[in-house]
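One-letter codes give the sequence; the fold follows as tokens. An example follows:
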Amino acid sequence: MARRNARNDPYGDLHRQEEAPAPAVICWLCGRPTGTTTILHHPVPKSRGGRDTVPMHPICQQMLIANFTNSELQRHGMNVEGLLADPGVRKFVDWVANKDPDFTATMTKKQR
């Protein structure tokens, strides 16, 4: 009796269907496609009642957390244009625009 899924099946590739590539997920902040690691970020912090999540690069989320307080993020809410109006965020997005989707770097906290 032969096995149904033999390891060395010469016709195994013919029976498999072509898998469609997964659609690229776009980062909420910088607009680039995300890489292998995607963070689901709460634009309005959970401590301030936020429930919605958006996909982001880890480095983009680190930049937001390092430069904004929870109350500042709550004021901006889901408005990404308001965040991009900040000169520090605009400078970061321009800098990261040509980087690899899986690029990561350490972020320094903003002096308050």
About this structure: The longest strand covers residues 39-41. The chain has a mean pLDDT of 83. The beta strands are 39-41, 54-56.
